[in-house]
Amino acid sequence: MSAVVELNQVTKEYPGGVVALQGVDLRIGSGELLAIVGPSGSGKSTLLHIVGTLDRPSAGSVTLAGHDVAALSDRRLSALRARHIGFVFQSFHLVAGVSARDNVAEGLLYSGLPRAQRRRRAALALERVGLADRMHHRPHELSGGQRQRVAIARAVVGEPDLLLADEPTGALDSASSEAVMELLHDLNADGATIAVITHDGEIADSLPRQVRIRDGRVVADLRTGAAVPADRGGKR
Ligand SMILES: Nc1ncnc2c1ncn2[C@@H]1O[C@H](COP(=O)(O)OP(=O)(O)OP(=O)(O)O)[C@@H](O)[C@H]1O
Ligand SMILES: [Mg+2]
Per the database record, which ranges form the ABC transporter domain (predicted)? Predict the structure, then answer.
């Protein structure tokens, strides 16, 4: 299994002296679906930002799609990130007053595609997440679960190899939360590598791998053998 991203002895110290990560080794292989769990303040979001190259480590190395991140300029790193990674943030980060479709199309802003094509793909991505009939709704006209699905559509519209989600179900009721997890499973079955931060033990237990963080260290990395349903197994 080739690595999508690999962290070697990564440490992250924030200005002010908080050491949020210490000596983290983590390899995420192509096609994996994993949970990142741990107490509040343990370094999960920091880890996701570094895996996603939104932030650089204070020490240690990050290799993304075979590129040593430290060797890349910010500009080249942004390009690499835009090509390979999609993010879903807990608070959605949708643009207010702009339709679901244009929010999703924004995920292709740096793709070089003309606007008409960006909008066409956005429509397809919204269909994919079950929101074909909410295309023209603006965020305040959508439910929380629907907003989260728009955010996921935006994250996957560029067909990233790696999808990183920070508490994608944190703000959702259990039905919406199930729908979002089902969507992530489907995207994974179609080939996306996915890492999900969650504080929901049931969700974490339902994923094939669990990375546990405490005080900035990986304290467990379990292959839970959680059922990847048989009909999804060989589909890649
Ligand atoms: N920009 C920052 N500057 C300084 N310290 C920070 C910054 N961001 C996070 N921290 C600190 O780093 C530690 C790890 O934060 P992080 O956001 O990664 O935790 P987390 O595991 O995601 O927590 P939660 O479950 O509450 O979201 C915390 O102690 C936090 O206070
Ligand atoms: Mg966090």
Answer: 5-230
